[in-house]
Design brief:
Elements lengths: L2 E4 L17 H6 L11 E2 L1 E7 L4 H11 L7 E7 L4 E7 L2 H4 L2 H4 L6 E7 L14 E5 L2 E8 L5 H10 L10 H10 L5 H9 L7 E5 L4 E5 L8 E7 L2 E8 L3 H5 L3 E5 L4 E6 L2 E6 L8 E2 H7 L5 E2 L2 E2 H16 L5 E4 L5 H11 L7 E3 L12 H4 L3 H4 E3 L1 H4 L3 E6 L6 H12 L4 E6 L12 E2 L7 H4 L2 H8 L3 E4 L2 H7 L11 E2 L1 H4 L20
Parallel strand pairs: 16-26, 19-22, 22-23, 23-25
Antiparallel strand pairs: 1-5, 2-24, 3-6, 3-12, 4-5, 4-6, 7-8, 8-9, 9-10, 10-14, 11-12, 11-13, 14-15, 17-18, 20-21
The protein binds iron/sulfur cluster.
């Protein structure tokens, strides 16, 4: 059962209460599993469709493919030229959008959103799309990323009379649009986007237009696709990742560029560069962990980047071993690259239970303590008596890594060598990735040897920063990207950061 919020078709009664179901509070208040607490989470995936007779269903399918980017809430807003409807709920896309619910979303345009957020901030009210009735008309917005100059803007807007419906930073953008002195809507959007700082890949919808934009540094991915309709205008789509296009049989057209605002209307696609001269800082961790390997983001295939990370890791810190075992799922592609480069057999020595996920609600504390064992199980006959190279994509607090190392050793492995396909995570993210503060990041407070001892591995090595950058650059005939690597260096590409979050363990202000 899920919790619903229906923002209504204009002119109709708001059905919020009528659509509330039991079990909602449980879904809204659930805490992440103990194994999840030591994993990094992306906060969102976004989707937009223009010019499709069943836009809501297309958005649903796109969000289904983007479910890995957020499992806590999802929403779809549609427009038919006159009205703008919006339904969102707590839970997975497939749980929220049944046939009955999709039938309440008419129109040829849609935007959609799937969200992960931390517990205190997980209210249904903050689920997206957010619909705001502004001086510029009805606007729905869905946003991936985090703004960093939030406090200032919010105070200024409230002084100017803005009334906020949510605590979500996405609403700031809509309020800025509403308060902009620019004459046209597109000018107002460009004006508001140039005032916010941080990470945003956004899709917006009015009654008759779709807008898509990325922040000037291009932190989060956003791609444009197309479905050709014989004898009719093309359907235009936007998605956080191109894997969403595959499910819709759409072709990838191009990435929305950093600092670009694209508008799609009945008259076609137009674009403007609302910001320029800012150095690109695309999130390299999208290539390491978040994005699906079958997606192409920042102009290159994630699969290729991860394969190269694994190969580079083998070159930098190879160790004599009998098998290479990935921590599924995100460690699989890098482990394949490592195994091939090192000439060591690749084995699926850990099996992931895909049905646990974040929707699992622990009935009691005793079950919670199972932690990693609920998600992963060792294949004893592949590990027994073997020297194992274990490939994973990050160590956050170290507690999950220790459980996995113990699990592999408990299954009979003779040696366990942990290799991480990126550098040590030493600083938190302020751009849409839910990282703990510096005092809780093990690599920010301990040496690699201390971490090795803590996780009880025979050896531990991380990919170098140079190795990571080389793995994610070039290829595909694509020009070199410039990446944000702040969680590995502590050098942030924006001016605004939360100082309290970057204090090391033991420090206080
Ligand atoms: S700090 Fe790390 S996770 Fe955050 S945007 Fe930069 S590279 Fe990505």
């Amino acid at each position: 059962m899920n919790r619903w919020l229906f923002q209504g078709v204009e002119g109709e009664h708001d059905l919020t209460d009528a659509l509330r179901c039991e079990g909602a509070a449980q879904a809204a208040n659930r805490e992440p599993q103990s194994s999840d607490a030591d994993t990094l989470h992306e906060e969102c995936g976004v989707m937009a469709i223009h010019g499709h007779p069943d836009a809501a269903r297309e958005a649903y399918l796109g969000l289904y493919a983007l479910q890995h980017r957020g499992q806590e809430s999802a929403g779809i807003a549609t427009a038919d030229g006159q009205r703008l409807a919006n339904i969102k709920g707590m839970g997975l896309v497939s749980e929220i959008f049944t046939e009955d619910v999709l039938a309440k979303l008419p129109g040829t345009m849609a935007i959609g959103h799937t969200r992960y957020s931390t517990t205190g901030d997980s209210a249904l009210l903050n689920a997206q799309p957010i619909r705001v009735d502004s001086t510029k008309g009805l606007i729905a917005i869905a946003h991936n990323g985090n703004l960093v100059n939030l406090g200032n803007l919010r105070t200024r807007l409230e002084r100017a009379g803005a009334y906020f419906q949510t605590t979500s930073d996405s609403e700031i953008i809509v309020q800025l649009i509403a308060h902009s002195k620019a004459g046209s809507l597109v000018d107002a959007i460009a004006d508001s986007l140039s005032q916010v700082d941080g990470a945003f890949s956004i899709v917006m919808m009015t009654r008759d237009r779709i807008f898509a934009a990325r922040d000037p540094r291009g932190f989060r991915p956003l791609s444009m696709g197309r479905i050709k309709n014989p004898g009719a205008p093309d359907t235009i789509l936007f998605a956080s990742e191109t894997c969403a296009f595959d499910l819709l049989r759409a072709e990838y057209v191009r990435d929305v560029q950093p600092g670009e605002l694209v508008m799609v209307s009945e008259d076609g696609v137009t674009s403007r560069q609302y910001a320029s001269g800012v150095q690109q800082a695309s999130c390299i961790f999208e290539h390491v962990y978040f994005a699906r390997p079958d997606s192409r983001i920042f102009g290159r295939w994630v699969q290729e980047s991860r394969d190269r990370m694994g190969r580079q890791l083998a070159r930098e810190s190879g160790v004599p071993a009998d098998v290479v075992v990935p921590v599924p799922d995100s460690g699989v592609t890098a482990a394949l690259g490592y195994a091939e480069e090192a000439g060591i057999p690749f084995r699926l020595g850990l099996i992931r239970n895909h049905y646990v996920g974040r929707t699992f609600i622990e009935p009691e504390q005793r079950v919670r303590d199972f932690g990693v064992r609920l998600k992963l199980n060792p294949v004893h006959n592949l590990l027994e008596g073997k020297r194992v190279v274990l490939i994973d994509d990050s160590i956050i607090r170290g507690t999950t890594s220790r459980k996995i190392v113990r699990m592999v050793r408990g299954a009979g492995a003779k040696e366990v060598h942990l290799r991480i396909s990126c550098p040590p995570t030493v600083s938190p993210c302020f751009y849409g990735v839910d990282t703990p503060s510096k005092r809780d990041l093990i690599a920010a407070n301990q040496s690699i040897e201390e971490i090795r001892r803590f996780i009880e591995a025979d050896s531990l090595a991380y990919l170098s920063l140079e190795g990571l950058l080389a793995s994610c650059d070039g290829g595909d005939g694509h020009q070199a990207n410039r990446y944000c690597v702040a969680c590995y260096t502590g050098n942030y590409p924006t001016q605004w950061i939360d100082v309290d979050e970057i204090l090391p363990a033991g420090a206080a202000i």
